[in-house]
Design goal:
Elements (H helix, E strand, L loop, with lengths): L7 H9 L9 H10 L1 E5 L4 E3 L8 E6 L2 E5 L4 E5 L4 E3 L5 H4 L3 E4 L3 E6 L1 H10 L10 H5 L32 E2 L5 H11 L3 E6 L2 E7 H9 L14 E2 L4 E2 L4 H11 L3 E6 L2 E7 H4 L7 H10 L3 H8 L2 H10 L4 H27 L6 E6 H4 L11 E5 L5 H21 L17 E3 H13 L3 H10 L2 E6 L2 H14 L3 H11 L24 E2 H20 L6 H11 L4 H27 L7 E2 L6 H25 L5
Parallel strand pairs: 9-10, 13-14, 17-18
Antiparallel strand pairs: 1-8, 2-7, 3-6, 3-8, 4-5, 4-7, 10-11, 11-12, 14-15, 16-17, 16-19, 20-21
Helix pairs in contact: 1-2, 8-10, 8-13, 10-13, 12-22, 13-15, 16-17, 16-18, 19-20, 19-23, 20-21, 20-22, 20-23, 21-22, 22-23
Length: 624
């Protein structure tokens, strides 16, 4: 179905009849109308989940909405013209009620930033939005959407909530001049090209600058000549952090939002974060602008500040890990580009592969580097050895200069052993699986977690498939893997009390990484190898292996929750250290925790300990 009220002029006319928006003058209403995003919803569609009413303001254009407290069974019905959500819903209901379409309806959405800016310009409107201040500031005083630094709280919301206006579209045959004129008149930085109701491409102000003005292109040529064709998109229900991640990984600043084949609108990097200097998108953009290792080193120093902002915004550890890792990926990719610029194109195909926490998208601001290279089997040491030796050293030394220290165990592509043709890597894995002696087990913990960063990804994909086929159902190998995994135990005493490190510089602390997070990572890896699951991220592995029957759904949920809790503690701990000018580490003193957090810490350790015991019993006879 097609929306009837998509044009700002038509919506402005509707707003003029509204008891609240009718208070505005014509010019202000016209501006406001362009900031609304219109959406059509079928009866029964959940538009704002419980606790998300403060994410945006909704205006019912037609149909009926139901606001409901699912816990208490309380609800109200709202008709056309009613406002709900940010500011309009009373403060006591903002955190506990949800919004659902009671009938087919049309909703106009207004983003928090737009409403706050309007109320600042038109203070009299605050009369109609009594809960606005409550929505802006939680009970703990933390900033929320619309306040400086609060944009990252939108990471858990659907990206449809960030759309500020209907999509601006043109036919691909429109002239460049006409496209530029439209962008100027509407004051937008991008336009979508649509042909026969399908997204064809997009152009941005950067395209006009770099592809038209700089080369002196004829502005009467069709705009399709300078467009980015088949642009990356995301569905409207995707969480906003996925949009941020996609932009950071691909160094883009505009992203079309889709509802199936229908274009809902465009979001930009600015929509995702008001803190440009510490936004992952802008940080990644700055990385790709650098032309020297020194420049990359300077930019990478902002990663710790990014982690602080993520912690302050209460972003999930899952989101934070992906975002922080995206910066490491961008640095790695840029160093590879600089290496090829200095040394020339690679003589044969290769893929640069991240291992360990970077491969799992689980990095924090404190990480060393684990990586390797898989080379095409045409590799000849005499002809190609010097090139790839210099290439890998440039990238690894560059990563070290950016704060990702050299791996203490030399598990890096600059080490000859870990820069080999694909056939040699096949031999490595065959030997590790068939003869799982202690060193082989240690190496499997690093090199079974691999993710392609740059190059011919097929070299890794085919290798991974072969390895998983070899490990699935291999009880002897899995038994040794379990035995190796059980070396990392949660620090729980005989009676369930937390055991602290007894001596040394980290005395009276717990090691969150090796005593808490690593055991969960190890469990998930064993489950994945047993079930031939290709996922690498620990959270994703646990979700998939539960579906495959390698672990119960309840146990997988418990492990995911334990991982999220322990990782959140680690992120918050490191953020506090950075704020105090200390080097971040993984050693947490119990004095940093509330009694509530200590109780949950024990619960998390107990979950890990129980599932370690279950896995140990399952494979205890497999080694004999």
């Amino acid at each position: 179905m097609t929306l009837q009220l998509t044009l700002p002029a038509a919506l402005a006319s509707t707003l003029a009849q509204h008891p609240v928006w009718g208070q505005l003058d014509d010019a202000s209403r016209a501006t406001l109308a362009s900031q609304f995003t219109c959406e059509e919803a079928r009866a029964g569609t959940a538009l704002l989940a419980q606790g998300q009413l403060q994410r945006r303001l909704g205006l019912i254009l037609s149909g009926t909405m139901e606001l409901l407290d699912p816990d208490l069974g309380l609800g109200v019905r709202l008709q056309g013209g009613a406002l709900f959500g940010l500011g309009a819903t009373p403060a006591p209901q903002l955190a506990t009620w949800q919004a659902t379409a009671a009938s087919d309806c049309q909703i106009a959405w207004l983003a928090p930033e737009a409403l706050l800016a309007l109320c600042q310009r038109q203070p009299q409107l605050a009369y109609f939005f009594s809960s606005l201040s409550t929505a802006r500031r939680g009970h703990d005083g933390a900033s929320h959407a619309g306040e400086p630094g609060g944009g990252l709280n939108l990471l858990s919301t659907p990206i449809r909530a960030l759309i500020k206006r209907a999509p601006i579209t043109l036919a691909p045959g429109t002239s460049i001049r006409a496209a530029a004129t439209l962008m100027r008149d509407l004051r937008v930085s991008s336009v979508l090209l649509v042909e026969q109701d399908h997204l064809f491409g997009l152009i941005t102000d950067r395209d006009l600058r770099n592809r038209v003005l700089a080369p002196g292109l004829d502005i009467e040529r069709p705009v399709a000549d300078i467009a980015t064709l088949a642009p990356l998109t995301l569905p409207a229900g995707s969480p906003a952090f996925e949009a941020l991640l996609l932009m950071a990984r691909h160094n883009i600043h505009h992203l079309p939002v889709m509802d199936g084949q229908r274009i809902l609108g465009m979001i930009t990097a600015t929509d995702l974060s008001e803190q440009h200097s510490t936004s992952a998108v802008y940080l990644a953009g700055d990385i790709y602008k650098q032309t020297t290792v020194a420049g990359l080193s300077q930019v990478s120093a902002r990663t710790q500040l990014l982690q602080q902002h993520l912690a302050a915004a209460n972003a999930s550890a899952y989101s934070s890990g992906h975002i922080i890792t995206a910066i490491a990926d961008a640095l790695t990719t840029r160093l590879i580009q600089l290496a090829e610029a200095q040394l020339g194109p690679a003589p044969i195909d290769y893929v640069w592969v991240a291992a360990g926490s970077q491969a799992r998208n689980e990095q924090s601001a404190k990480s060393d580097q684990d990586n390797c290279m898989i080379l095409d089997d045409r590799y000849d040491e005499a002809a190609h050895g010097d090139y790839f030796r210099a290439f890998s050293k440039f990238v690894c030394d560059g990563l070290a200069a950016c704060g990702y220290i050299h791996c203490p165990g030399d598990m890096m592509a600059m080490t000859d052993q870990w820069r080999q043709p694909r056939a040699r890597w096949t031999q490595y894995f065959q030997r590790w699986v068939d003869a799982p002696e202690p060193m082989a087990l240690m190496l499997t913990c690093v090199f079974f977690d691999l993710r392609a960063i740059h190059g011919q990804t097929e070299l890794l994909d085919t290798l991974r498939h072969e390895v998983l086929q070899r490990t699935q159902g291999n009880s002897l190998f899995l038994a040794y893997m379990v035995g190796n995994a059980l070396k990392h135990r949660p620090p729980l005493g005989l009676f369930g009390q937390i055991s602290l490190i007894r001596s040394g510089e980290n005395a009276r602390t717990i090691d969150l990484k090796h005593s808490g997070i690593v055991p969960i990572v190890d469990l998930a890896r064993v489950y994945a190898l047993a079930g031939a699951v290709a996922a690498v991220n620990t959270h994703d592995r646990l979700e998939v292996v539960a579906q495959a029957g390698e672990v119960s759904a309840q146990s997988a949920r418990d492990l995911r929750d334990a991982l999220e809790f322990l990782s959140q503690l680690r992120i918050a701990h490191q953020a506090r250290q950075t704020q105090q000018g200390q080097a971040p580490d993984n050693f947490l003193a119990l004095e940093e925790l509330s009694n509530f957090e200590r109780s949950h810490l024990k619960d998390a350790f107990q979950v890990v300990q129980t599932l370690q015991n279950v896995l140990g019993q399952r494979y205890q006879s497999g080694r004999f």
